[in-house]
Design goal:
CATH superfamily: SGNH hydrolase
CATH architecture: 3-Layer(aba) Sandwich
Number of domains: 1
Number of helices: 8
Bound molecules: 2-acetamido-2-deoxy-beta-D-glucopyranose
Order of helices and strands: HEEHEHEEEEEHEEEHEHEHH
Number of strands: 13
Distance between the termini: 33 Å
CATH class: Alpha Beta
Strand content: 15-25%
Strand order of the largest sheet: 4-5-6-3-9-12-13
CATH topology: Rossmann fold
Largest sheet: 7 strands, mixed
Radius of gyration: 21 Å
Shape: globular
Length: 435
């Protein structure tokens, strides 16, 4: 899931083409998040097929019926996971309340919003979705204060490591912070997926690092999104893309999930140990949840054993809200207000992922707690509160003024900016300031 940014130096024409291709790739990947898990080998179809009917393969057979989530933690139980045990209030349990003050930035006051999440600019007609704020049940959650945050982060460095949802989160943070100080972009990779910004007057460095599997992976896709082979993931090797710069960071938020639903070959100790969906008689299916667990273990283990004192947040999985279909079968997300608690349930896949996350977090926090040498690990449990916001996605407004009477592509996974994901930063600041 890769995007260009508005301010990229690539010439416009070429950029639009690239952007189009990337849009399609993104959609394919989003779709794969839910489809590939059932279907055959990862052969990403030709770009054009996405908009035609060429991708209507047979209905998903119910493989994976047996999720083994041993001792799954109750979905609503977040209080227990604070590593210090000192939390009086579980900030992740609560509800969305109306907030007439509206968003902290708009498409006019933040110019780094990615095109596909710039719902205002793209002509989304309703605006109710920007007038809500997350309210924990047992306490008040102060709104993010960019000045306080930047002062707190003086001489510090923070990184978000993960996939396009992590990028979505960083962009919200950037927009909020840029109301106080405009950051300078000091690095970007060729695809604008790994980037770094510097807030000069606060000596604060903010990074986003593209690492959708957290562990070392080889993705065999060309620029058009065609895959010549299944992804290969070295589950026992943390991704050098973040490991090699880990020493620079004081604060880290890691997250992953959706990419583990792709067809993949898994390796440990440089040897194939199994796969997900590869349909190769010589390789046994081990399930995406095995791989996800192992990758989280590898990641958390590296962080625990690092001699760098780091404050780490593990963010839980992000639910999507496709209704009446998936991304490629007419699924949409056109609700205009939040769900109330009890009106919606987590899907099986998200349950499984979250179960794995909570279990691995618990294990890691016990070890980290035991060593008491200054590193901190906390759960950033945004799954439930995000589940309540079906109204916060771009839907067809991922594109500029889409013809909603024609055929549209809906994005019901990422979040509009401004939008619900801004509240993640209220939570983030609250946690960080509490230490
Ligand atoms: C699921 O598990 C049950 C009991 O453990 C077993 O009887 C059944 O065959 C399993 N189904 C699949 C598809 O593996
Ligand atoms: C939370 O989970 C516990 C245990 O499953 C249950 O007893 C309780 O009613 C739940 N609370 C809410 C608010 O859902
Ligand atoms: C922001 O969105 C509004 C519509 O909500 C539009 O009129 C305006 O031109 C947009 N601004 C920019 C800078 O794109
Ligand atoms: C900026 O912060 C770094 C640590 O991240 C520190 O080494 C450096 O001295 C700081 N620079 C100034 C001008 O304070
Ligand atoms: C990894 O592979 C090497 C060579 O095949 C072997 O010597 C070593 O014991 C293996 N390590 C583990 C942890 O399996
Ligand atoms: C199955 O996997 C083996 C080992 O990686 C490989 O040599 C073989 O070509 C694969 N077969 C197919 C049909 O992909
Ligand atoms: C914390 O302790 C673990 C072992 O218990 C060690 O591996 C790690 O390097 C230590 N971290 C720091 C920041 O000293
Ligand atoms: C959402 O779209 C569906 C299908 O196009 C339509 O039936 C429904 O009325 C729409 N709901 C809203 C709130 O617009
Ligand atoms: C972490 O350590 C604190 C104090 O040492 C203790 O009270 C708390 O229960 C521990 N938490 C876990 C999850 O081990």
């Amino acid at each position: 899931m890769s995007f260009d940014m508005n301010n990229s130096p690539i010439p416009v024409k070429h950029k639009q083409m690239k952007m189009f291709v990337k849009v399609v790739v993104c959609l394919i990947l989003m779709g794969f998040a839910y489809r590939l898990y059932f279907s055959t080998y990862v052969q990403i179809p030709p770009v054009i097929v996405v908009f035609g009917d060429g991708y209507s393969s047979s209905p998903p057979p119910a493989v994976e019926a047996n999720f083994t989530v041993s001792g799954q933690v109750p979905v609503n139980d977040t209080r227990a996971h604070d590593s210090t045990g000192s939390l009086k209030c579980d900030i992740f349990t609560g509800k969305w309340v109306q907030d007439v003050t509206g968003p902290r930035y708009t498409n006019n006051t933040c110019d780094t919003i990615e095109h596909h999440q710039n719902c205002m600019k793209n002509g989304r007609p309703d605006s109710g979705y920007i007038y809500w704020r997350w309210k924990p049940r047992d306490c008040n959650l102060p709104i993010f204060d960019p000045k306080t945050f930047l002062n707190f982060m003086r001489k510090k460095s923070m990184a978000f490591i993960g996939d396009s949802i992590s990028r979505n989160h960083v962009q919200s943070l950037l927009c909020i912070l840029s109301q106080v100080e405009r950051p300078m972009e000091v690095y970007h990779d060729q695809e604008y997926r790994t980037r770094r910004w510097f807030f000069d007057s606060h000596n604060f460095t903010l990074s986003v690092i593209w690492s959708p599997f957290l562990t070392e992976s080889k993705i065999f896709e060309d620029n058009d999104g065609h895959a010549s082979s299944a992804v290969r993931v070295h589950l026992d090797n943390p991704d050098p893309d973040w490991v090699n710069v880990f020493r620079n960071f004081d604060y880290v938020e890691i997250a992953a999930g959706k990419w583990f639903l792709k067809t993949a070959i898994y390796l440990e100790n440089n040897t194939i140990i199994g796969c997900h969906n590869c349909k190769n008689e010589t390789i046994s299916e081990v399930g995406f949840y095995y791989a996800y667990r192992k990758a989280l273990q590898t990641t958390l283990d590296f962080i625990i054993r690092s001699d760098r004192k780091v404050y780490t947040l593990l963010r839980t999985t992000t639910p999507d809200h496709f209704e009446n279909g998936e991304w490629n079968t007419g699924g949409y997300c056109n609700r205009t207000g939040p769900f109330k608690e009890g009106e919606v349930e987590l899907r099986d896949i998200d349950m499984v992922m979250r179960g794995v996350e909570l279990e691995e977090f618990e294990k890691a926090v016990r070890v980290m707690n035991g060593s008491r040498n200054g590193s901190v690990l906390k759960l950033f449990d945004t799954t439930r509160l995000s589940l309540l916001r079906p109204d916060g996605h771009p839907g067809p407004y991922r594109a500029f003024h889409p013809d909603i009477n024609g055929e549209v592509q809906n994005d019901c996974l990422h979040w509009c900016l401004p939008g619900p994901i801004d509240s993640w930063n209220d939570l983030l600041m609250n946690i960080l300031l509490r230490g």
